[in-house]
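Support request, please re-run this one:
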Amino acid sequence: MERNDDWALNYYIIMMKAIFRAVVVLILLVAIGSCTKDVIDTTGDLVGIVSDSQTGDPRSGASVSLTPLGKTSSTGSDGRFEFNAIEAGLYKIQVNKDDYQSNTKEVTVMAAETTQADIQLKPLSKGNELARCIAGLITKKGARCSCIMMGWRKSIVS
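Re-run finished. Output below.
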């Protein structure tokens, strides 16, 4: 009977060691799996449509600048622009297009979100366009400039 008891005791010890090893391995696997670092998204997307303030029509070919990043984009045929995966924060959008007054807008981009920032441009009148041309071309007293715009020509002598 003693021999039977020794065998049973040895079998019990071997089984307990096996169960203990299995539990230790399982605990290690759970611990390693839970130690993975959570990925936190710190970027967002900024999208918008540039349109004419009078007609509401989208404006293609407008230049869209994003500061302080210094990124630029051009609007597509649908007036749409986008800046993807930019850090969350406060940005200034500046939009320029020939024959329109430039416009700026401040927007806050949130992490893991898409921020919509539509912006409208006001068309320039012929008088404003001429003034802009003159201001850009006359650099010193006595300078002569010509502006050709919208099918007409104007010469200035100072």
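Residues 138-158 have pLDDT under 50 and may be disordered. The chain has two helices and ten strands.
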